[in-house]
Structure prediction request, 318 residues.
Amino acid sequence: METLEKKSVAEDPILEEAFMTRLLNGEKIEPKEWMPENYRKQLTRMMSQHAHSEVIGMQPEANWITRAPSLLRKVILLAKIQDEGGHGLYLYGSTETLGTDRSELIEQLHEGKAKYSSVFNYPTLNWADIGAIGWLVDGAAIVNQTMLAKTSYGPYSRAMLRICKEEGFHNRQGYDLMIAMMRGTKEQQEMAQDAMNRWWWPALMMFGPHDKNSSNTIELMKYRIKLESNDDLRQQFIDRTIPQAEIIGLTIPDPNLKFNKETGHYETSDINWDEFFNVIRGKGPCNKQRMHNHIQAHEEGKWVREAAEAYASKHKQL
Ligand code: FAQ
Prediction:
């Protein structure tokens, strides 16, 4: 997969210094204001990747709409998936304020030039996977996005505030589903543990590679786009999620897990980074299926986009 250019672009030093001072003062940068080209590039890369993740992330959950075990669970699942689509739209809209059209961002995704979160390349094999996604995947997303709500770019920060509120509901419905399964029959408890075993490690991978291997973090932190590193956020997620698992009787699938009383943090085995890099290079269990479905839906929706554009241009002429 190609990656976006990360080389520094020479900037006007006076404008750059004024820009950095604004960042240090905690000011938000707004769309029409001057910004360094690398700031724009990094934000476009990260925000479009985030938007693609929200939309591709609808697929693993949609797999269970027709098989939800009750009307209530079906309604909750439908509402959640619809929210994720809405998050994608806010984020495409926010990314467009940086000057790249949504159609171009989607083209980059289809051409394999833009990524989406690794976690959505895993299959949803049993109903408890829907609980595990809400609890673990949305739980990880919230830790990351609570930090991003304080990011330096105004439109991204405001989108994150709104999205975090909805992700909070998603997280609680996922945990509620896991509680229901753990209070159920032995088979239901086994389904919940099976889901935990398969989603734990992909959820930890969502935070990205270790800080020492993270090619973007230094620049993102310099520009106050990211305020905390991949490893720090991952640790926060681990520390808050393990007690939640234990309280409902789920076992963390990690034989080396231990709580370090001195640091106050849990210590885990290392992540299987070969698996992570394989998945982000397109070789995960569902990458082909996810992209195929997205491209097909995009092609099938072409007439809707054309009709909307025709309506908009007619409306403008009147
Ligand atoms: N998957 O230098 P870093 C959700 C790539 S939303 C794929 O450390 P960075 C809601 C990275 O792009 C979840 N690729 O990267 C929901 C880079 O490659 P590049 C999405 C990954 O940017 C719930 C390379 O590896 N959230 O779940 C991943 O500093 C349920 C080196 O990495 C966001 O996108 C990965 N996990 O940190 C929806 C939040 N990790 O681009 C439906 C915004 C790394 O140079 C159902 N994004 N890579 O070619 C971020 O916070 C950051 O971009 C990170 C990565 C933390 C994802």
